[in-house]
Amino acid sequence: MSKNKSRLDWCLSNENRLKRIPINNLKSKEHIEKAKHNLLAVDFNIKGGFNDWAVSQAYYAMYHGLLAILYKFGYESKNHECTISAVEHLIDTKKIKLDIEDVMFIRTTEQMKMQDAKSLREEFQYGTRTDIDKEILNSLVKRAKEIVEKIEFVLSGS
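Above: the chain sequence. Below: its structure as tokens.
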């Protein structure tokens, strides 16, 4: 059994983490719209000097994209790690054509230099820092926009 399959099974063992539901195309569409809404908020907050909130919104843009995928395939998630694991399983089983590197970027990445998108979001959402290195922020925002665009493309073809 693959690592992603065993994680998926663990997630599905508790409905408070992840559960099977009927495919819900409306919820899928709403989540991709929320992802795009968050990307607009990223730009708005950067212009306004709220880089800490831009980090959170970039993460949530990508996360809502993942939720859009799950609703399209009959899952509902209430757990970030389970959302990511379920999408990785869909990639492993060739149900979606999304780069695993894009999903891994949301969980963990070397490209962010010091941290992954989720850790950055947690640091700036729960911590007291309000400023982030411009290079890291620009990289996060650029990648978030690319990932949401890719997810939207994947959803249009499934």
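The domain at 3-157 is CATH 1.20.120.330 (Four Helix Bundle (Hemerythrin (Met), subunit A)).
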